[in-house]
Amino acid sequence: MERPLDLDAIQAFVLVADMQSFTRAAEALDSTQSAISLKLKKLEQRLARRLLERTPRLVRLSADGQHFLPAARELLAAHERALGKLNLGAARFSVGISDHVTGSGFAKVLAQVNGYDPGVVIEVRIASSRDIMQQYERGELDAAIVRREPQDVGGELLMEERLGWFAAPQSNCWSGDTLRVATFSSTCRIRELSLARLDDAGIPWLEVFVGGGIQAVGAAVTAGLAVSALLHRTAPAGAVDVGAQMGLPPLPLAQVMLHSRLKEARTREALRTLAAALKAA
């Protein structure tokens, strides 16, 4: 009788395949890159197949890995179904995420979290970083993933994201010598920061659009109305960073912080998977 496959190794394989990164998979599993690599090496030895092609900058599935991935997902799902029959109910938690952080790949992020543990129900709220932090501080959320504001305290640094000046290709963002800008509402720190940088650089600006969220401002950029300061991960499809081309002042990195009061191991693991998937998106 052959030895059964190691479910931990299967789970690591699926996460590495989804996130295309040993580092992100290790973060999701609260492990180390070397430990994940060892698990997968043993899995490949057990199957006598090479599942992953590894390069210094890229991890991708081999032909055998692509063939094995659906079976690996089904094996994990069967395991969860078996455990589900023993559990009294699904685990649940709420998390608020800044709309500056979610980006266009958020659907894939949710799919990865669900694939990791389908029995965890996540209530997700998306709003501005300030609104999310206020809800978290009032105890309305179990966790928050937000862009760090000057008044925020505590939290874990999740990642640093680039800010850029984005516009639609071929759009004219100037009115004479005055830069046409699309901004967020007055409560947004990015608005305050970007306009201050323009003032410091001596660049006159005209606010031609004010949006209440990333979708509204992104639509204004796509329509060619103006240039806007946006995180690279949330810039609308087709928009380009025109900062250097237009001689606009550089913008600092945005710090994305994770705040959590979760105590139960299962929900903490799901949140860790969500955070790692966001970083990989």
From TrEMBL:
Domain HTH lysR-type: 5-62
SUPFAM superfamilies with a match to the protein in the record: Periplasmic binding protein-like II (SSF53850), Winged helix' DNA-binding domain (SSF46785)
InterPro entries (alphabetical): LTTR, LysR_HTH_N, LysR_subst-bd, WH-like_DNA-bd_sf, WH_DNA-bd_sf
Pfam families reported for this sequence: HTH_1, LysR_substrate
Keyword annotations: DNA-binding, Transcription, Transcription regulation
Family from the record: Belongs to the LysR transcriptional regulatory family.
Protein name: LysR family transcriptional regulator
